[in-house]
Amino acid sequence: MNLESASESRTSQRADFLADSGHVAREQLRGRDVAERDSLRLCRLLCGASLVLLGVTRAIWGSYNPLPSIPWFAPGTLVPRWLDWLLLSGLLLCLVSNLLLPTAALPTRRRWLLLTLAWGAVMLLDQNRAQPWTWEFWLIASASAALPAVQSRRVIQGLIISIYFYSAVSKIDAEFLYGLGPLLASGLCKPFGLDLLHWTPLSQQVAAAMLPAGELLIAALLCTRRWRSWGSYGSLAMHGGLILALGPCGLNHEWGVLCWNVYFIAQNLLLFRQDDAAIDRGASDVVSVRPQASSGVPHDSPNRAEFHRDALRQQEFGRSDATPASQRCNTSPWSVTATCVLAVITLYPALEWFGWCDPWPAWAVYSHRPIHVRPLVHLDAVHQFPESIRRWIGPPEPLTDWCPLPLDSVSFSETHTPLYPEGHYRAALFVALADHAGVASEHLMLHVNFPPQRWTRARSETTLRGREEILGWSAERWANVRAR
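Predicted structure:
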């Protein structure tokens, strides 16, 4: 009788365990299906946003770029101009195909792989094409192509959180509080009829400080599952405010900035939402199941599935040292790879603090911390520049014959995009513009202001004269300095 009872108990435990295991498997499959579906949706969202942003910044992508193209690596200077059209056509074909092809026509990871290759090829031929949004899109495509959907989602979420964090850190200094910060805050107040310039200096600084404080708060909330929904709502409010501040009713910035903020709203709605728990179940090999009342199952057991699994192992294989499933870590190769990729993506921008990373890849947007360069052209050489450049050259500085050439104004006028903010790149671009105009070396000068002290705003500076001296300083950076 005892043997029959023991056999029936073991059979019941096995049946319960198999039922729970079937539930676990269904939950894992559901989580992975949700992640795959979201990955395809993100791919199509990113492709649609890319087409819009390529349209509003089209001047920097084709061979008709009015500014000299400076590739990231020296061999890129030998690439013929017609290849720009070929690569751009390939990118556009890839974007349109991903939007129009049905789901079953091409696996999602292959779509991401094509995007990674296409974006990378066009970005390599001009440093100015590494706009913040193109850098983000390339990172998202790379992570999604290299990892399964569940793991890539976690990496992309970490990337978005790091953007908020590093963007906030780049603004925590006196230069932002006294300079660009109040300007951005005034743009936010302008649609409501408020004039921030009439506020006291302290009030202006407090309003400016709210911008990085909000970004830090959003990053902290998105890191915590319990508060993630609040962080998502905060990010939507922040991007809506930026659209208001930078749009036609505010500071009237370029359309590329506004479109990127619109994309961020749609992206965050997709990536930070309530059903993350289901996706987590698809990422793990062992999934916790809600405990159910059953005779013979201890009340303090981790859960029903784990108890039956450990009991069966001990009864059938004589293992008394079986480790509960709740204490076993998921060390699958994909999880380890995802952790490494996430570490690289989130820690690389910190190198900008030591001067080893450019501002935009470090998410230092709307920040005064990068090196500032001020190109100067001798009065006798101003007439050599084309009209599109010459009309932006200012009058000579007092008691000198040197005229300032504002590269930012030239870029906004000719390409409708902000200029890549790295100082060494801008120095190389200044020399390339002068070379194209045939300006002599002795008619070039460059003032260089290095990053300010965080709280005193003090900057060290130097002056470079002549083509060789300017290019010599520009070449101190790892990237190529020669134009195509």
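Summary: The beta strands are 372-378, 402-404, 444-449, 461-465.
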